[in-house]
Amino acid sequence: MAGGLHFPSAPGRGGGRAARPGPAGPAGSMAAREAGGVVLGKSADKLFSLSGLFAVYKPKGPTSAGVLNLLKERLLAEAGVQTNGNKRNQVLKIGHGGTLDSAAAGVLVVGIGKGTKMLRTMLAGSKKYTAIGVLGKATDTLDATGRVTEEKPYDQVTKGDLENVLQKFTGDIMQVPPLYSALKKDGERLSTLMKRGEAVEAKPARPVRVYSLSLQHFQPPLFTLDVECGGGFYVRSLVSDIGKELSTCATMQELTRTKQGPFTLEEHALYEDKWTIDEIARSLEHCTSLLPAEPPHKKLKTEHPGETAVSYCHTLKDTRMWCGN
C-alpha cells in the first residue's frame, strides 16, 4: 500500500526567520500568507490551520525523522509554499512522538500545530508491537541489521520452554538497553560512538514495564511475539534476553509497532498515498475523540529524562526536542 518512499536530500538550515504558524483563524492565515513574503491560497490557509495529533505508517527502511521530513515536504508542496530551501522546512510546525528504528515499521504518531505540545502525552501510554525473533543467532545490534557475533544450537528449545520463559519477562522487570541505541554518552548517541569503533560501556539495567507478552507462532528457529509495554522498553533487548534464558541466543528479525497510545495501525495510520492536507484534516477530526480535550500544561515527568530520543519536533528554527521514552 505504501510502496517505496522517495526521500529528497535534506534541506539546509537557514538563518532567515519564517512566520510562526498558528491555529485556525486569522493567525493561521497570516502565517500561511506571510511565508516567504508570498500571498498563498486556501490550501496553505487550511494547512497552517491544522492542529492536533494523527498517525502515519512508517515503512521499514527510512528513519522516523526521514518519514517526517517527507511528510512535511509533501504538505508544503501541496499548499504551494515555494520559499527558498533554507526557509521552506521551518515554516510548518510538525513533529513525531515516538521514534521507531529504521529497521522497524508501523505506527508513528505525528503532531502538527499545537499538537506538537501534546506529543509528550504519547510517552505515558502503552505501545504494542509484533516481533519476529530468530533462535541460535546473536548480532551486535540485537537485530537483523547487525553483524553476527555468536551462533548456538537451538534444537533443544520447545514451544513450552519458550512460553514458560515469557512469564519471567512480564510485569515490572529490569532491562539493559542495547549499545546500538539513541541513548547518549557525553552528548552523543551510543550508536554513533559504536559505529566509530569507540569503546562503549553498557548502560545499567533500568526498570521497565511489560503489560502483556504472548507467543503467537513458533516454527524454529523463528518465533513471533506480541508485546505491550511502557516507555523506555527495547523489544530488541527482550528477544536477546529470551535467547539467553533458553541457553541459546536470539536476535530480532522484524518489528512492527501496531499501536501507540490510542492510535492503532489498522484504524488510524495513514499510508503514503493519504498524505494530503484533506486526508490529514479528516484524520485529525476522527482522532479528536481519542485525546484529552486540552493539551496538558504541566511538564510531564518522563521515566528516563534526556536518555532516549523519542520526540523529534521541527519548530521555526528547525530545532529538535528530545525527551525520555
TrEMBL record:
Domain Pseudouridine synthase II N-terminal: 90-235
Keywords, in A-Z order: Acetylation, Cytoplasm, Isomerase, mRNA processing, Nucleus, tRNA processing
Any one GO biological process: mRNA processing
EC number assigned by the record: 5.4.99.25
Residue ranges occupied by any tRNA pseudouridylate synthase B C-terminal domain in the UniProt entry: 236-270
Entries under InterPro entries matching the protein: PsdUridine_synth_cat_dom_sf, PsdUridine_synth_N, tRNA_psdUridine_synth_TruB, TruB_C
Cellular localization per UniProt: Cytoplasm, Cytosol; Nucleus
Span list, region Disordered: 1-30
Membrane-spanning parts: none
Top-level taxonomic group: Eukaryota
GO cellular component terms listed in the entry, alphabetical order: cytosol; nucleus
Biased composition (Low complexity): 18-30
Top-rank EC class of the record's enzyme: isomerase
Annotated GO MF terms: RNA binding; tRNA pseudouridine(55) synthase activity
Catalytic activity: uridine(55) in tRNA = pseudouridine(55) in tRNA; uridine in 5S rRNA = pseudouridine in 5S rRNA; a uridine in mRNA = a pseudouridine in mRNA; a uridine in tRNA = a pseudouridine in tRNA
Keyword Acetylation: yes
PANTHER family documented for this protein: PSEUDOURIDYLATE SYNTHASE TRUB1, TRNA-PSEUDOURIDINE SYNTHASE
Family from the record: Belongs to the pseudouridine synthase TruB family.
Stated role: Pseudouridine synthase that catalyzes pseudouridylation of mRNAs and tRNAs. Mediates pseudouridylation of mRNAs with the consensus sequence 5'-GUUCNANNC-3', harboring a stem-loop structure. Constitutes the major pseudouridine synthase acting on mRNAs. Also catalyzes pseudouridylation of some tRNAs, including synthesis of pseudouridine(55) from uracil-55, in the psi GC loop of a subset of tRNAs. Promotes the processing of pri-let-7 microRNAs (pri-miRNAs) independently of its RNA pseudouridylate synthase activity.
Cross-referenced HAMAP family: TruB_bact (MF_01080)
Protein name: Pseudouridylate synthase TRUB1
Source organism of this protein record: Strix occidentalis caurina (northern spotted owl)
